[in-house]
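Chapter summary example.
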Amino acid sequence: MTGILLINMGSPLSKKEMRQFLFNMFSDKAILPFPKIPRTLLAFMISTFRHAGSWDKYQQIGGSKLKESMKLINDQLATEMGAEYVVTSAYSYSRPSIREGVETLRNKGITNIKVITMYPHSSISTTESVTSDLEKVHKRYPELKLTELGTYGDNELFIGYWLDNIQKAIAKNGYKKPTLVFSAHSIPQYLVDQGDTYVDEINDSAKLIADKLKLPYKVAFQSKIGKLKWVNPDTKDCLKGLKAKNVDEIMLVPISFVNENLETAYDQGVEIAPYGKNELGIRNICRVEIPASHPLLIATFKQLLTAK
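The structure predicted for these 308 residues follows.
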C-alpha cells in the first residue's frame, strides 16, 4: 500500500482561524527570513492587526473554496489510482497540518508516502517550506519513506489543463484574440537574488501555453505585501502598459494556482479586473476561473505518481 499526500497552503474557515492562519504563515522562516523571536513577534502583530480585514475579503468572495476543491481532487485522484493507494490532504498553515497528514497515513500502516504539492512552480517560499516541514516529520518518524515528486509547470498534461481552461473562458466571454496576462503570486526580489527559480518557471509555463494557443501574452505578478522589493512587473502596471497600446481584450490567467483562493477570486476578481475595466477603461477584461478539479490536472498527478 502506498500513501499519497497532497499539500497546499490552506485556508481559514472562520475569523478565528484567519488569525491563526496568518500567524502560522508569517511564523514560517520561508515567508519571513528572520530569527525566531523577531519573526514570531512580527507574526503576532500581522495576525492581530490584519486578520479582520483579511476575513472581510473572504466574506466578499463567499468564503474560501480551497478545501472543497482539495477534497474533490483528493477523491478523484484516489478513484483514479485505485485500491493500492490511499490519498489524503494536508496544509502548511491550516489543519490538518503536514505532520497530521503524514500521521493519518502512518496510522493505516503505510510507510511509503509520495508527496505532491499544489504548487506547479518551485520557490523557497512554497515548495522549500514544504520540504522543511517534511524533514521535521521524517526526524520524528525515520522509518517512513517520504518522496516529493517535484513541480510540474512544464508538464504537457498540465499545459493542456490550462489550454482547456483558457479556451473555455474565451468561448464563454466571446473574445476573439485576447492578450493573456499570466498573473502569478509575487515573491520578494531577494529570493530571486538567492537563486529562486520561480520567476523563470512561471515564464516557461506562460510561453508554452501562449505558443500553443498562438495568442499574445505578458507575465506579471500580484498580491505583494509590505515595503520589500518584489518581482516585477506588477499586474496593474502591466494592464496600464497594455491600455496604452490600445489592447481591448485581456484575460487574467492565475498561472501559479490550481485552486480558487483569495488571490484569484478577490485580488484578481474584485480588485485587478475591475481596476482594468473601470479605471483604465479596458473594454473587455476578465479572469480565467479555476475549476474545482479537472481531468487533466488529475492526469498530471497520476503521471507524476506512476513515472518510472
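To summarize the output: The radius of gyration is 19 Å.
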